[in-house]
Amino acid sequence: MKITDPGTRTIDEALFAAEMAKVAFAGGQTQLPARPAPATVADVLAASAMKENRPLLRLRLTILLRYQPGWGRLRAEGVVDHVLSVTGAKLDRRLVNVGWLLDPRAGGRRYAAWLDALQPKKDPPWSGFPHTRSSGF
Hints:
Blueprint: E1 4-5, E2 10-11, H1 13-26, H2 41-47, H3 61-66, H4 73-87, H5 98-101, H6 109-118
Antiparallel strand pairs: 1-2
């Protein structure tokens, strides 16, 4: 099923309608289903906790990030590499999926590293970093 425009990676309305018409009429329906709202990464992570959405746990994190607007392969791989580095995991980034990220045996460390990787790092953590100590110590 091809419903996205390769240039913009957005859903092409004409291709979506044609594909949905084929699916609906093949199943004997007379009305087209509504187009789903775009899902964010947070939506996918939250939905993966529900029993009926267990297949989402096998979704690779690089794929999940890569197809978000404004993301590409290098940025997505950078986030996954950061998570692997912070957690000390010795895995190939291709094996890192939603289930690995949310595994309760990790005690939230992987998810905390994930959140850290998604935070913009434009300013230093304190003035004088890294040559002076933080005032928090």
